[in-house]
Amino acid sequence: MTRTLCFALLTAAAAAASACATPTPEQQIVNAAAAALGGRDRILAVKTLVIEGEGSNGNLLQDMTPEAAGQAFLVSGYKRSIDVAAGRARTEQTRTPNFAYFQGQAPQKQVLGIDGDVGYNVAANGTAARVSNAVAKDRRAEIYHHPLTIVRAALDPAARLTNPRTAGGERVIDIAVPNGSAFTLAIDAATTLPTRVVSMTDNPNLGDVAIETSFSGYQDVAGLKLPARLTTKTDKYTTADLRVTRQTIDGDAGNLAAPAAAASAAAITGPPPATVTGEEVAKGIWFLAGQSHHSVLVEFHDHLMLIEAPLNEPRAVAVIAKARELRPGKPLTQLVTSHHHSDHTAGLRAAVAEGLTIITHGANAPFYEEAIRRAHTIAPDALARNSKPVTIEKVDEEREIKDAAMTVDLYHIAGNPHADTLLMAYFPKQRILVEADAFSPGAAVQPYAANLLENVRKRNLKVDRILPLHGTIAPFGDLVKTQAATQ
Ligand SMILES: [Zn+2]
Question: Which of 315, 300, 339, 349 is nearest to 435 (CA)?
């Protein structure tokens, strides 16, 4: 029997597998992995898997600098329940930041689920909410980031197995599972136990990224070999590290159906439409609010400058349009970013696509250059559709940008526990300060405000009003009061 015919029969009916004397190289890799895990029949008989443990989650694109990796959420009470055949999974965990988190240091309970097309979160008060289709897609893929589930899916005659290869002590194969999602599975060439599963997804800031879960510490569980250590990276960033303390096959996985409130909610296909308000707070200075993340427009004699292009591409595009609408006679040429965090730079590429020069703390420059170069083929954005070169101007401790009409001083917010890359913008004539995250009026906790105040006083800045990039415009006294309250 030829391999082609054998494959055709396999695709037609699983029963034909036994008729194929010579499995294809693709099938050989899957069969070897299945044998190492406990055998094809044992794998196919599994209905549910419950994994309990502890570990950590990374703070993706929210650490002190673009390269830093010291911040993490310590994870306890981790329990992940997977209904293998039904494509349902739910993770419950408690995470505690090991750094000064903007929501405070208290442990947070999380419930994150996926049930077919419906992804959902359950808040601490029991309220379930549907998550976006993009998040749900990642959670569906995550089900297969485990040796048992990926090999089980690869054994399905409807799976498409391609590109068998050997590299660096591993045998590797690409798998399109029956629902169409694509994965790469690597197995140890000697033990044939799975070592890694990789899938690709879109990250709005980084574009095409590989999510890779590595497996180690295999142990015997109910006639199977299962890993006791699972480490996941998104691109080069470690996003999860789990040490398994207990795993159960076909135990009580609980009810993994999406809660009714999430299941009946409309699908979220993208960010909400952008709403941008424009309030002229002083001559030549506009506060552009309307959603969770704000921007500031600054009018110079011969050009306009935008401070911040946050949140997502639609918001950034709308903010840029608002700037041009408010001052149609002058070109918008500069974007100042407050710091490198993903929510504050999600519009960076949109701004580059619009031809803006980027002004940022020097420590961000290599990261921004890379962000602008990266491939965005999975979810093409404006810059992917229309590539443009970028000019990045670096600020280290301070820089004055001044002409006949306007003066703005950009200062590094030194030593702030939120990020090492923070810039604030000070308008000496108008006595206005623009800052992000260091002080967010109305927030329950203000872990970074003391340092902001210190920086303002150290530089002897005369501030009447703060234009925060989160929250509403506040008198300077509100920043001072955050310290009175804690003393
Ligand atoms: Zn931030």
Answer: 339
Tell me the CB-side half-sphere exposure of residue 142, using CA atoms within 13 A.
26
Cα 176 to chain center, whole Å? 24
pTM: 0.92
Beta bridge partners of 432: 427, 465
d(CA 144, CA 135): 15
Amino acid at 309: A
CA of 253 to the centre of ligand 1 (A): 37
Spatial separation of the C-alpha atoms in residues 218 and 33, rounded to whole Å: 13
CA of 104 to the centre of ligand 1 (A): 14
d(CA 97, CA 297): 34
C-alpha of residue 452 to centroid of ligand 1, in Å: 14
pLDDT, tens only, 292-304: 999 999 999 999 9
Give the Å distance between the CA of 409 and the centre of ligand 1: 20
Ligand 1 centroid, distance to 282 Cα (angstroms): 26
Please write the tens of the pLDDT for every residue from 117-144: 999 999 999 999 999 999 999 999 999 9
CA of 413 to the centre of ligand 1 (A): 12
- Encoded tokens for 307: 């401070």
Query: How far is CA 315 from its chain centroid?
Result: 18
- C-alpha of 298 from chain center: 31
